[in-house]
User: What shape does this take?
Amino acid sequence: MTKFDEQYCLSVFERLLAADSTTGQYEEVQQVLCGILDELKIPYEATRKGGVIADLGGEGEPLVVTAHLDDIGLMVRHVNADGTLNVCSVGGLYPFYCMMENVRVHTRDGKVFTGSVCRTPNSIHVTEEELRVTPPDFRTNVCVVLDENVKTAEETKALGVDTGDIIALEPRFTYANGYIKSHFVDDKACAAALLTVMKALKEEKKPLPRKVYAYFAMFEEIGHGTTWLPEGVKDVLAVDIAPTGPQQNSDEHKVSIFAKDSRFPYHWAMTNELRAAAIKAGVDYVMDIFTPHYGTDADGAVLAGYDIRHAAIGPGTANSHGYERTHIDGLRNTYELLLAYLEG
Assistant: This one.
């Protein structure tokens, strides 16, 4: 097995993070991804709604390995009278996980404005006691404040900011002692691990025992990332984060094989194949179940009506849909399991 290229994985992750890609706004990250695939000399094609499908070669019984590049974020709901922005979530972003984060507002005319997510009122020293304990709510007491000298709705709209504009959080990537902290570990770190596997396969030049596609989806966070598949696909394997928690087996240093999520169990036989591959390759893995609020793009393909087997794996990740954390060991073990499974 080709050794995990840690530096390549981290560099690709940072390249993907640099492109804002709140669900629905995929053009920039798609361009970055296609540039990486061009560098690897791997053929690919884009779907109508923005996904990218790379052909990794092989013959017979097609398998799709999917990771998504869309991020949770916000959208401008309306412009408030004081020039601030009332917002709603895109995907599963909750107010308590994005308070005081810096953001970029992307208008439909291509302008970009910076700002931050703030409480209303915004200063604890001049806030009544009952408001201090009131939970943050996008509808009533949370807004986005632009880094612009605007005091009225008219002044903000004059900038070109209005209802329907996309708002992306700053990723805030850091790396220390092997720990990766950033928004959007879900799922750009997993996409980086998949691209690192693709690089290894390209360098090894060994034929794959079956046809394999790498599918980079752009709408996973709202449930329809891989709801269309190339003709003849038999299996779908999602590479996504494995949330950690008090009753979870998942660990930031390990790869998880998903037994079940909030929708239904993953395919018994395919899951057992992944488990056998992990044992044979000496991969540090755990089995885990993710309920009550989790699903992957592999589920989406099943729900779309495809007659497929489906499974999912991924690195243990803390603080899901917030300022997430995993460890390079988790990405390494994900890489090693995926490579072992693809090579048979």
About this structure: The chain has two domains: 6-71+184-343, 73-169. DSSP finds eight helices and 18 strands in the chain.
